[in-house]
Amino acid sequence: IKSDPIKTIQNTRNEHEACGQSYYNETQYENYTITHTVVDGVERIHYCPNIVKQKATILFQHGMWHGAWCWQYWQAWFAEQGWESIAFSLPGHGKSFEQTIVEECTLAYYLFFLEQEVKRIEAPVILCAHSMGGALAQWYLKFFGDLPAIISVAGWTSHDILKDCLFNAMKIDPLGSILSCFQGSKAQFRNEDVVKKWFLSENSKMSPKELRQKLGRESEVVLMQHRPPRWTPVTEHNTKILWLGAENDAIINVKHSKKSAEFYCADFKEIPNSNHDIMLDQNWQLSANVVKEWL
Q: Is the peptide bond before 228 cis (omega within 30 degrees of 0)?
């Protein structure tokens, strides 16, 4: 929890660097191609339109318990609009190899891998980040500097995520919250009803059953780091930011999302009838269009 972010970034490396490609799958559709790879232990899902209409590439960053898979609907939709995009999985998430034990990972450790992904993309990068990924976007601003644009999708709040969401999270499922301290995510997301309460609304695009099957392990350390005294946000930046808040977010309420957007001088949009997983919920296409129009 008290680890120095700069030292962590300096001392972190990809332990599987130069190990090569361990997974490859390519699927061609009428208007785009999906290339799904694991190279040097890192999973990437690349959507490339047949006709690329934009100079920038969207880099999708997932949040806690999720992986690159959580962006599948948005990636396909944006590819139809001519946007190239890449979603990647942090170590120990999705198909990415575990390196440091997931439960012991820090935000700075995750940030190292995000920064590596930004560097490897030759085009201007638009970072689209969900939940904890929204915290990583803020940490990127602080430790690496500006990007052309950031989209925070139900992202962590600007100053203190525990203060802003702990009570809400406990209220979702008190028993599961207690059990998770001893048994991890298997207890926290022990059935479909609980998963739905955490992340989804009625008639969501991804079903609670499918989402539960995909959710993985996570570090609780990260929650302790995005708060004082370990964390203070940047007060000056030159990045254009769009902040999406979900009307029915069970974890981060709209009031706190809007306050954080105001702090960063970001444009704020509330997505109606949506829970925390905006990109998987019933209004996933409406929210994707909000992002497209803003871009």
A: no
Long-range CB pairs of 162-168, under 8 A, 24+ apart, other chains included: 162/223, 162/224, 162/226, 162/227, 163/227, 164/252, 164/256, 165/251, 165/252, 165/256, 168/250, 168/251, 168/252, 168/253
Measured between alpha carbons, how far is residue 273 from residues 245, 249, 281, 286, 292 in Å?
A: 11, 9, 9, 11, 19
Which DSSP symbol is given to 157? Answer: P
Phi first, then psi: give them for residue 66, nearest 5 degrees.
Answer: -100, -175
92: alpha, beta or left? (left if phi > 0; alpha if psi -120 to 50)? left
Please state, in angstroms and rounded to a whole number, the distance separating the CA atoms of residues 135 and 264.
13
143: left (phi over 0), alpha (psi -120 to 50) or beta: alpha
Contact 187, 180 (CB under 8 A): yes
Closest alpha carbon to 68 in 115, 36, 113, 110: 36
Q: How far apart are CA 103 and CA 28, in angstroms?
A: 37
Task: Say if CB 287 and CB 293 are below 8 A apart.
Answer: no
Residue with tokens 């190239």: 84
The residue among 109, 92, 9, 77 whose CA lies nearest residue 43 is 92
**191-230: per-residue pLDDT in tens?**
999 999 999 999 999 999 999 999 999 999 999 999 999 9
DSSP strand pairing (240-246 vs 267-271): parallel
Number of C-beta neighbours around residue 1 at 10 A: 10
d(CA 197, CA 217): 18
Question: Distance between CA atoms of 106 and 255, rounded to whole angstroms?
Answer: 27
Amino acid, single-letter form, for residue 94: G
What's the pLDDT tens digit per position in 62-86?
A: 999 999 999 999 999 999 999 999 9
- For the whole model, what pTM was predicted? 0.97
